Amino acid sequence: VTPASVLDLFRSHGALLDGHFKLSSGLHSPAYLQSALVLQFPDAAASLGQALAEQLRVMSPTVVLSPALGGIVIGHEVARALGVRALFAERVEGRLMLRRGFALRSADRVAVVEDVLTTGKSTLETIDVAAGAGVSVVAAGAIIDRSPHAVDLGVPFVALARVDVSSVPPETCPLCAAGMPAVKPGSRPG
Ligand SMILES: [Zn+2]
């Protein structure tokens, strides 16, 4: 698995499109990323999980923790490849937390895994879920890093590929200025 092969996989499933898109955040972007279109194929999810696990293994995680919903499938595959548990945190009244009887043990070494790192906000919130429980977070990982600039997560971060695309307000969008109509993708972009 190389960065180019990951992006090829995304493009071949329509999970990475070039154009002019209106994101759920209201921002406009020349790229649309929807990892669920790749992860719906279990073989693809497994090979991406395996590749991410290989990069995270050096940190000896004992549990993978992912933000729901976007991180669940890839988190599960990374955990399978590492032979550790796969937990997810979900939002209750806007705040990420562990539910369903999920528990972290004080000796756990947590790897936070999500599908796409955009602003880093959900990864940071997920790190806080573990840190708030007094458990150490040893690394974070994502299939694709599309953050506009290097985000300091406070832990080592690995991604299988990077997509350099800017998201801008419509007022300053060069594609709008060029008169190209913006389209709204089917569901929430990664
Ligand atoms: Zn625009």
3D structure, described in words:
With 190 residues, the chain is of the alpha/beta class. It has helices at residues 3-12, 36-39, 42-56, 72-82, 121-132, 174-177; strands at 16-22, 28-33, 63-67, 85-92, 95-98, 109-117, 136-145, 157-162. The strands form two sheets. The chain has a six-stranded mixed sheet, sandwiched between helices. The longest helix is centred in the first third of the chain and has 15 residues, at 42-56. The radius of gyration is 17 Å and the shape is globular. The mean pLDDT is 93. The protein binds zinc ion. Residues 20, 28, 170, 173, 175-176, 182 line the site of zinc ion (ZN).
Secondary structure: elements and pairs:
Layout: H1 3-12, E1 16-22, E2 28-33, H2 36-39, H3 42-56, E3 63-67, H4 72-82, E4 85-92, E5 95-98, E6 109-117, H5 121-132, E7 136-145, E8 157-162, H6 174-177
Parallel strand pairs: 3-4, 3-6, 6-7, 7-8
Antiparallel strand pairs: 1-2, 4-5
The structure holds zinc ion.
Zinc ion binds at residues 20, 28, 170, 173, 175-176, 182.
Radius of gyration: 17 Å
DSSP summary: helix tally: 6
| Tertiary shape | globular
**Run of helices and strands:** HEEHHEHEEEHEEH
Major β-sheet profile? 6 strands, mixed
Contiguous low-pLDDT stretches (5 residues minimum) are none
Q: Which structural class do you get from the secondary structure elements?
A: alpha/beta
Tell me the strand percentage band. 25-35%
Strand order of the largest sheet: 5-4-3-6-7-8
| DSSP strand count | 8
Q: Span from first to last CA?
A: 21 Å
| Small molecules in complex | zinc ion
What would the average pLDDT be, to the nearest integer? Answer: 93
Helix share of residues? 25-40%
